[in-house]
Amino acid sequence: DITGADFGRDFRLKDPSGQERTLADFKDKVVLVFFGFTQCPDVCPTALARAAEVKTLLGPDGDRLQVLFVSVDPERDTPEVLNAYTAAFDPTFLALYGDQERLAETAKEFKVIYQKVPTGDSYTIDHTSVTYAFDTKGKLRLKLSHSQSAIEYAADVRKLLHAA
């Protein structure tokens, strides 16, 4: 529980259609925010698969959950790639992106660290693997660990939904 945290207050990033988004766009929903990249081999697909399972576990309340995937790889994660990636997990999941400067500002605001790591003729990205949960009023409430299960996430999300 990180209620009252002085970070993760907001963002200004674009969705795949090019529309600028902020937390206010998701009022009345619990929002899960995860930073990652589409070519991530393990952590990112696990995080999004877990988020899809959480939505299912919530039943009808799943409609009041918004999952946001923030790309830390603006070079490779084009809007089209991001849209296809998140849609593969759930059509309501939304990818967000920004240029290098906007990404750096957003990552700093959310205390997320990411770093490009060369791998032969390509690269991977080391990044923070936590999921942030915002309540229906847009306030940062929880920092969820990558080691937690979908059942644990769903219980936390349900509490935030019913506290509204």
Automatic annotation (TrEMBL):
Residue positions binding Cu cation: 40, 44, 127
GO molecular function: metal ion binding
All copies of domain Thioredoxin, residue ranges: 2-162
Keyword Metal-binding: yes
Keyword hit for Transport: no
Domain of life: Bacteria
Disulfide bond sites: 40-44
Keywords per UniProt: Copper, Disulfide bond, Metal-binding
Protein name as annotated: Photosynthetic protein synthase I
Organism: Massilia aurea
